[in-house]
Amino acid sequence: MSRMTSSARPLLNRRLAEFGTTIFAEMSALALRTGSINLGQGFPDTDGPKEVREAAVKALRDGRGNQYPPGPGVPELRTAIAAHQQRRYGLSPDPDTEVLVTAGATEAIAAALLALLEPGDEVVALEPYYDSYAACVALAGATRIPVTLRPREGRFHLDLDELRDAVTDRTRLLLINTPHNPTGTVLTREELSVIAALAVERDLLVVTDEVYEHLVYDDAEHVPLSTFPGMRDRTVTISSAGKTFSFTGWKVGWVTAAPALVTAVRSAKQYLTYVASGPFQYAVAEALALPDTYFEGFRADMLAKRDVLAAGLAEAGFEVFRTAGTYFITTDIRPLGAVLSKDGDGFAFCRALPERAGVVAIPNAVFYDHREAGAPFVRFAFCKQTAVLEEAVSRLKTLSA
Ligand code: PMP
Ligand code: GLN
After folding, report:
1. Is the pTM of this model over 0.85?
2. Is any atom of ligand 1 closer than 6 Å to the C-beta of 48?
3. Could you read off the pLDDT of 90-101 as tens digits, one per residue?
4. Is the peptide bond before 44 cis (omega within 30 degrees of 0)?
5. How big, in percent rounded to 5, are the helix, strand and coil portions of the chain?
6. Does the pLDDT value for residue 313 go beyond 80?
7. C-alpha 347 – ligand 1 centre gap (Å)
8. H or E stretch including 135?
9. Ligand nearest to the CA of 211
10. What is the CA radius of gyration of the chain?
C-alpha cells in the first residue's frame, strides 16, 4: 500500500505552525524593497575591528579551520573564552569541559533547550522574549510560561513575585536574558540574586542569554547569573561574538557551564550543525584577547549612539524607555496619536512606517504571548553610523509635523 499524503494535513508540523517568517527577515526585506533606513534587525552597519578581520583572512589562508573544526570548538577559542570570563568576571571555566563553541547564540539556545527539556516541561521566560526562544521551546515540545516585564518610571521592570508565581511543579528551567532585548533593561544584582535563590529553592535549571554582556550603560552593570551562590551547576550561560565584535554574519557563539551541562548541550548541538565557522573561530579567539580599550571604546561609541537616537525619538514624539543595555530602544507610539495606526497598534505602525517615513522598526508585539501587552511598543536599533541615525530621526520628525 502506498503512503497516503493527505492534502488536509499541513506540511509544517504543529509545533512550528504558529511561527511564520521571523520579523527580522520580514522587516529587513521591507527595508530593502522601500529603500528605507533599517533600524529593525539588530546588526551594525560597520564591521568590527580590522585586525580581527585580518585574523580571519590569515586563518583561511593558512588553512586553519577550512575543514571541520573539533566538535567543541577549536582549542584556541575555548581557551580565549575561558580567559575572557576570568578577566571580566573572575570565573574560571575549564576550556576542555566547560566551554562549547556554537553557530552563534541562536544555536546555543536551540541546543540548550532541545537538550535539557522533555515534552510537557514548562519554561519560564521573560516577556517580551527574543523570538527564537518561543520556537525552540516549541520544538522541544515544552510549554513557555511568559512573565511580562512592565513599564514603570521610564523603564521596563521584572515583577519578582510574578516570576515566583509562574514557577510550578512542571517548571524545568528559567530562560533569562540580560541585558534584555528588546526592552534594554539590565537586571540588577538584587533582581538576579532573587532569581538565583528561586532557582536553587525550586531546583531549576537556568539558561541565560548574555549576548549583550559588553553593552551596558550609565550605572548599570552586567553580572553573570552563574556567579550567584548555587548557580554554578545549574546555569547554562550563552554569549556571542556577533554583538561584542560586530560580526553578526560570522555566527560564532558559545556556551559556558558545568561539565555535565556542557555535555548535555553538546549532545544536541552535534546533530544541529556539528560544527561551524572554522576560520572565524580563530579570529574570535584573537578578538576576545583585545585590550580593555577595545571593549570600553565599543561601549562608549554605542552609548553616544543611544543618546542620539533616544533624544531624536523623543523629539519626534515617541515615549522613549531608558535603555540601560543592548543596542535597542523601545518606544511607545501612543503619544504620536493616530499617526499610522488608529489605536496604538505597533504592527500597523511598523508596516506603514517605511512608505511614510523611510524608516524600518520592529513591533515588539511579536515578542509577546500577551500580544495586547506589547501592542503599542516599537523597537529601534541604534547600532548604526551616527549620520544614519540623524537622518532617520529627521525623517521620523515628519510624522508629527
Ligand atoms: N539572543 C539575543 C537576545 C539576541 O538579540 C540575538 C541576536 N541579535 C541572539 C541571541 C542571536 O545571536 P547570534 O546572532 O549570535 O546567533
Ligand atoms: N538579534 C537580532 C535582533 O534582535 C536579529 C537576529 C536575527 O535576525 N535573527 O534584531
Report:
1. yes
2. no
3. 999 999 999 999
4. no
5. 40, 15, 40
6. yes
7. 22
8. helix 131-139
9. 1
10. 21
